[in-house]
Amino acid sequence: MRGATQAKFAAGAIAIALAATACSSSSSSSSGSGSNANGVVTAWWGDPQNPLIPTDTNEVNGGAVLNMIFDGLQHYNPKTGVAELANAQSITTTDQQHFTITLKPGWKFSDGTPVTAHSYVDAWNWGAYLPHAQNNTDPFFTSIQGYDAVHPASGSATAQTMSGLKVVNDTTFTVALTQKFSLWPDTLGYSAFYPLPQSFFTNQAAWEAHPVGNGPYVIKSWTKGTGMQLTPNSTYSGNYKPKNGGINLKVYTDPNAAYADLQAGNLDIDNGLSNTALKTVQSDLNGRYLNQPAGINQTVAFPLYDPAWNTAGAKLVREGISMAIDRPTITKVIFQSTRTPATDWTSPVLGAEGGYSSTLCGDVCTYNPTKAKQLIQQGGGIPHGQMTISYNADGPHKEWVDAVCNSINNALGNTNACVGKPVGTFADFRNQIQNKQMTSAFRTGWQMDYPLIQDFLQPIFYTNAASNDSHYSNPQFDSMVNQANAASSKSAAVSDFQNAEKLLVTDLPSIPLWYQNGTVGWSSKVSNVSLDVFSVPVYTDITVNK
Amino acid sequence: MGRYVIRRLLQMIPVFIGTTFIIFAMVHALGDPVAALFGDKAPDPAVAAQIRQQLGLNDPLIVQYGNYMKGIFTGDLGTTFSGQPVTELLKTAYPTTLKLTLVAFTFEVIIGIGLGVISGMRRGKLADTGVMVMTLIVISIPTFVIGYVLQYLFGVKWGIADATVPEGAPIQSLILPGIVLASVSLAYVARLTRTTIAENSKADYVRTAVAKGLPRRRVVTHHLLRNSLIPVITFLGTDLGALMGGALVTERIFNIHGVGYYLYQGILRQNTPTVVGFVTVLVIVFLLANLLVDLLYAVLDPRIRYA
Fold first, then answer.
1. pLDDT band at residue A107, thresholds of 50, 70 and 90?
2. Which whole number is the average pLDDT over A333-339?
3. Do residues B183 and B224 both lie within one domain?
4. Are A153 and B269 a contacting pair at CB < 8 A?
5. Which of A5, A52, A254, A266 to mutate: most B Cβ within 10 Å?
6. Is B152 on the interface with A (CB under 8 A)?
7. Which of A94, A150, B229, B287 places its Cα 20 to 30 Å from the Cα of B262?
8. Is B83 part of any domain?
9. Which tens digit of pLDDT belongs to each residue from A428-458?
């Protein structure tokens, strides 16, 4: 026992010495020192909530794995977020409603079976079919003709397949949408649209235990609740071939534990940095840290179904509240600059071309305490006398909610004008929102499904949309969104969406707070770490130092 | 003795039913688990209804509980939302936590009682004062602070121990978490032992033993300690269960995938089978530990008899 421990110490000392020399050699000759193509990268992970079925996964942990083991019709460029053809040879349309999709020949799943038009059509039909109870179908399949029959809002399904999907031959299929949707091809990079191999349909339980895809990696082993090992897929035909020898995902229950492991050299990639870690991360990691905007924004929404909040006066009050929030100070002090003050309802990852605007919200999103107080008084004061901001206490929200309330209270000169209102768990918080039990403001956030301005507006502000938590409804907004969806070019669609977004500045169903940045820290053993537009590390690009 | 044990075991049945029902009802009161499955998005009502029906969430609480109990007797404890059977989780989590608990318990017994005896025998001396001050410090610092500080010093700064526990939880990497988990209880055990030792060392039977000319060592181990340990054992018995349940904080700090981890995740995801399954096993551990303590009394003190 003692001998073993001492041997371990010795090994540890040697490892540290090696790591130290590796570190110095790589810094002296920068990135040109070469990499170990067989080196395995250890990365932070959390236990996925649902089975790893593309149509059932809507959270980051499952999503990270799906992106590694699948490649869809389109692939979002990790740097620009632009959709590029991957498995699809072409996606064509003449009327923005009927699309013909042709696949590149020769693509295979990692079990050797070919990827055909059936792999896509069957997977989509399976996912949309109501009895399979997949939770990632809306809004991805809702626009396809025949969705209502396989997935009625109430009652049971009357068909097993969507009438809008037709297989022409092994490499071609057509899609008919219920209405015009000009940007639809750009949505196809999202994980819900991934294909599934035949083995999924013949033995689902076996597939779930060991998912098989067509992406850059294959799952080598998976110990549920502990970790997953992925190795490069030799049959992968796409453009994102792995530059390392595999990824070792390790489940962490607490972000601080992961950070301790990163510092101790047991973890290479940590994209789950906690607020505490962010305070010292720059110096702890010698600059091996990245902080860049992500497709996530945070807002404070209002219950427009509450009559007190749905008056002309309340509109002025909301404008005043927005002006009372000192965004730059809060993002700097509370978030260590890992948030960027918001200037619209989208995200900087879209770029000006994609519909992001740094001026759209203008004065309404600019701190002005004097004007704020005046507007709130003019609007008849805060409804119900006091404003609360509800948030789920199991997430890292208390600090900023208190800061926002302080900012509002200071502007109004009243220490009780706004208080934070914690709700125990996220599930309970969501229940209260869904059951329309909110009587005052609540936190809302949006993580984009695909880098399109459409995704930041339609699901949240269109009448009765899936995530319209404030229950905002403006016929003018709806018709402008419809017009954008019928536009014949991408640029026309984007400018139509921006016009719709301008209505939000006057109606203010929610107040933009800030855009979230993605952060990642890494060990001295790896290089070329970057984050894609979804703030997920680009695992395929990471190289292990020699 | 045998009849006593049987009676105690039978008494566990109503306790078992009562606790499982209370936990079942409490997880239920947290709200609708289906909403939590959809992340930041509002659930599709049709899908939500489908999932509710599949999980039997539309039945009244008492019917759901009945179905759950029916499952328990056939060895089916339900599944998580990702389709893993809860029995599988129990099988991976309990051995890990048990290992951690035993490491912590060993520290607690050896160091706690050891320090207690030393300071009880040398009341008022430097050693006694030292132990009292040290234990007071440990009791007043929250466990997570001790945990993070030790993890940083030993795991990150000096690199002597693993910063977190690797897969499979080997014993040598559990030493640091074990000390952290045991720290507060250890301090209580030391203080409790000190008091009873101090009291009993003046007792007549100890004086008699000394007068008989027995060696000091024998007086302490056979006469003094045996009588002084009864309250300490009561504490240790209840603490064994508390350690298993209370490992949650330590398990999070050191990334140990044990009971605390699955329980925490079960609560976050409002997965009733996970929470009830884990708590039920914890309850059984508590009950058995208490029974063991009661039986140990009889071994230590011949005056106590169970008919």
1. very high
2. 88
3. yes
4. no
5. A254
6. yes
7. B287
8. no
9. 888 899 899 999 999 998 888 888 999 999 9
The residue of chain B with its CA nearest to that of A466 is B42
Measured in angstroms, the CA of B248 and the nearest CA of chain A are apart by 11
d(CA A240, CA A232): 11
Query: Are residues A259 and A273 in contact, defined by beta-carbon separation less than 8 angstroms?
Result: yes
B136 Cα to chain A: minimum distance (Å): 27
Count Cβ–Cβ pairs < 8 Å, chain A vs chain B: 155
Task: Quote the domain boundaries for residue B69.
Answer: 2-73
Tokens (6 digits) for B84: 């893993």
**DSSP string covering A362-422:** GGGGS--HHHHHHHHHHTTSSTTSSEEEEEETTSTTHHHHHHHHHHHHHHHT-TTSEEEEE
Nearest to A135 among B47, B49, B172 (CB): B47
- Are B109 and B51 contained in the same domain? no
Of B59, B46, B79, the C-alpha closest to A132 is B46
Any CB–CB contact under 8 A between B140 and chain A? no
**Which residue does chain B place closest to A261, by CA atoms?**
B163
Contact assignment for A427 to B257 by CB distance below 8 Å: no
A541: tokens are 């690009």
CB contact under 8 A, B31 and A260: no
State mean pLDDT over A50-70. Answer: 91
Domain closes at, from A174, A201, A228: A201
pLDDT tens for residues A144-160?
999 999 999 888 889 99
The verdict on ipTM greater than 0.90 is no
For residue A168, give how far its alpha carbon lies from the nearest alpha carbon of chain B (Å): 30
* pLDDT over 50 at A22, yes or no: no
Name the nearest CA neighbour of A63 among A176, A233, A171, A215: A215
- Give A153 to chain B, closest Cα distance, Å: 5
- 3-class SS of residue A232: strand
> How would DSSP label each residue in B125-147?
SHHHHHHHHHHHHHHHS-HHHHH
- In terms of domains, do B291 and B264 share one? yes
Interchain CB distance below 8 Å, B167 and A227? yes
**Would the pLDDT of A370 be above 60?**
yes
Q: Which residues on B lie below 8 Å from A444 (Cβ)?
A: 40
For residues B66 and B100, membership in a common domain is answered with no
Could you give the CA distance from residue B229 to residue A334 in angstroms, rounded to a whole number? Answer: 51
Contacts of A274 in chain B (CB under 8 A): none
Chain A CB within 8 Å of residue B54 CB: yes
Answer yes or no: is B84 within a domain. Answer: no
Does residue A31 register a pLDDT over 50? no
Last residue of a domain, one of B16, B43, B73: B73
Q: Tens of pLDDT along B16-64?
A: 888 888 888 888 777 677 776 776 566 777 888 888 888 888 888 888 8
Within this chain, do residues A511 and A541 fall inside the same structural domain, yes or no?
A: no
d(CA B232, CA B296): 12
The answer to the question of residue A95 being in a domain is yes
Q: Which residues of B touch A433 (CB under 8 A)?
A: 42
> Percent of chain A at pLDDT above 90?
68
Is B74's Cβ below 8 Å from some Cβ in A? no
Domain enclosing residue A99, as ranges: 71-201
Q: How far B175 CA lies from chain A's nearest CA (Å)?
A: 13
Look at phi and psi of residue B75 and say left if phi exceeds 0, alpha if psi is from -120 to 50, else beta. Answer: left
